[in-house]
C-alpha cells in the first residue's frame, strides 16, 4: 500500500483563505485526526484529500504519483463519509448499501450489504426505507458503506455524530481492523475517538497569519474550485 501525503497545501473557499502551508503524511496503517475550532478547515481538508476540492496551492501524492495527474484513479482509492447523509429515502437500508457495493464491483452486492449492516449492529434495519431511519441509524448506514464498498483511504467528517456509545465502540473497532490491514484513515472530530498511534493535526496552526498578504491569493482566483 502506498503512502498518502500532502505538501504545502493552501485552501481557498469563496474569498476566504482557510489554511496555508499545510503538510501531512499518512503511512499504511496510519491515522490522522483533524482537530480545530468550527470553521478552521477540517471538512475542507478532507475534501481536498478526497479530490472533491482542488487545493489552491500545493499537491497531494499517492505513493510516487501526483494525485492531480489522475484524479479519477485517486477517487477510486477513497471512501468519503461526510456530513450530508447519502441515504436515498425510497430505498431500504440494504438497497442503499447494495448500490454502493455494486458501484465498487462487489460480486454479490446484497450479501455484502447485509454483512456490513450486521457488523454495524443494525441487521434489523435492512428492509427499512431510508426515510424511516433515525439519525443514528442513518449514520450507521453511512459508516457501513466503508465495509460494503471498501477503499484503502477512509475520509470521515465527524463520523461519530448521532452515534450512541455502543456504535462508537463498534466504529473504533472497524477503524482498528482497517488499519491493521494496512488501510489509512483521516477523520475530523470534536470528541474523542480512539485512534491509538494516530497523529493529531491541529488546523488552527495553519490559519493564515496576519503577515499574509491575502490579496496575493485572491487576485489569481477568487472563486472556489469546482469539485
Ligand atoms: N461551500 C463553501 N463555500 C465557501 N466557503 C465555504 C464553503 N464551505 C465552507 N466554507 C468556509 O470555509 C471555512 C472552513 O470551513 P470548514 O467546513 O472546512 O471548517 P470545519 O473546521 O470543518 O468546521 P466545523 O468544525 O464547523 O465543521 C469556513 O470559513 C467556511 O465558512
Automatic annotation (TrEMBL):
<dbReference type="GO" id="GO:0022857">
    <property type="term" value="F:transmembrane transporter activity"/>
</dbReference>
<keyword id="KW-0201">Cytochrome c-type biogenesis</keyword>
<dbReference type="InterPro" id="IPR027417">
    <property type="entry name" value="P-loop_NTPase"/>
</dbReference>
<keyword id="KW-0813">Transport</keyword>
<feature type="domain" description="ABC transporter">
    <location>
        <begin position="2"/>
        <end position="222"/>
    </location>
</feature>
<keyword id="KW-0067">ATP-binding</keyword>
<dbReference type="InterPro" id="IPR017871">
    <property type="entry name" value="ABC_transporter-like_CS"/>
</dbReference>
<dbReference type="GO" id="GO:0005524">
    <property type="term" value="F:ATP binding"/>
</dbReference>
<feature type="region of interest" description="Disordered">
    <location>
        <begin position="199"/>
        <end position="227"/>
    </location>
</feature>
<keyword id="KW-0472">Membrane</keyword>
<dbReference type="Pfam" id="PF00005">
    <property type="entry name" value="ABC_tran"/>
</dbReference>
<dbReference type="GO" id="GO:0016887">
    <property type="term" value="F:ATP hydrolysis activity"/>
</dbReference>
<keyword id="KW-1278">Translocase</keyword>
<dbReference type="InterPro" id="IPR003439">
    <property type="entry name" value="ABC_transporter-like_ATP-bd"/>
</dbReference>
<dbReference type="InterPro" id="IPR005895">
    <property type="entry name" value="ABC_transptr_haem_export_CcmA"/>
</dbReference>
<protein>
    <submittedName>
        <fullName>Heme ABC exporter ATP-binding protein CcmA</fullName>
        <ecNumber>3.6.3.41</ecNumber>
    </submittedName>
</protein>
<dbReference type="InterPro" id="IPR003593">
    <property type="entry name" value="AAA+_ATPase"/>
</dbReference>
<keyword id="KW-0378">Hydrolase</keyword>
<feature type="compositionally biased region" description="Acidic residues">
    <location>
        <begin position="212"/>
        <end position="227"/>
    </location>
</feature>
<feature type="compositionally biased region" description="Basic and acidic residues">
    <location>
        <begin position="201"/>
        <end position="211"/>
    </location>
</feature>
<keyword id="KW-0547">Nucleotide-binding</keyword>
<dbReference type="GO" id="GO:0017004">
    <property type="term" value="P:cytochrome complex assembly"/>
</dbReference>
Amino acid at each position: 500500500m502506498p503512502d498518502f501525503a500532502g505538501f504545502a497545501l493552501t485552501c481557498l473557499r469563496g474569498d476566504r483563505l482557510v489554511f496555508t502551508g499545510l503538510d501531512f503524511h499518512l503511512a499504511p496503517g496510519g491515522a490522522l485526526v483533524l482537530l480545530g475550532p468550527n470553521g478552521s478547515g477540517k471538512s475542507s481538508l478532507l475534501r481536498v484529500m478526497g479530490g472533491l476540492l482542488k487545493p489552491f496551492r500545493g499537491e497531494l501524492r499517492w505513493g510516487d504519483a501526483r494525485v492531480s495527474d489522475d484524479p479519477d484513479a485517486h477517487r477510486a482509492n477513497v471512501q468519503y463519509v461526510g456530513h450530508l447523509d447519502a441515504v436515498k429515502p425510497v430505498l431500504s437500508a440494504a438497497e442503499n448499501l447494495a448500490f454502493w457495493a455494486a458501484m465498487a464491483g462487489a460480486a454479490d452486492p446484497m450479501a455484502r450489504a447485509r454483512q456490513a449492516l450486521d457488523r454495524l449492529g443494525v441487521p434489523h434495519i435492512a428492509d427499512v426505507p431510508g426515510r424511516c431511519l433515525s439519525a443514528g441509524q442513518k449514520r450507521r448506514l453511512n459508516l457501513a458503506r466503508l465495509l460494503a464498498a471498501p477503499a484503502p483511504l477512509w475520509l470521515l467528517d465527524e463520523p461519530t455524530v448521532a452515534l450512541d456509545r455502543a456504535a462508537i465502540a463498534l466504529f473504533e473497532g472497524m477503524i482498528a481492523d482497517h488499519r491493521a490491514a494496512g488501510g489509512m484513515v483521516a477523520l475530523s472530530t470534536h470528541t474523542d475517538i480512539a485512534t491509538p498511534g494516530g497523529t493529531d493535526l491541529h488546523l488552527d496552526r495553519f490559519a493564515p497569519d496576519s503577515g499574509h498578504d491575502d490579496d496575493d491569493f485572491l487576485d489569481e482566483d477568487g472563486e472556489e474550485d469546482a469539485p
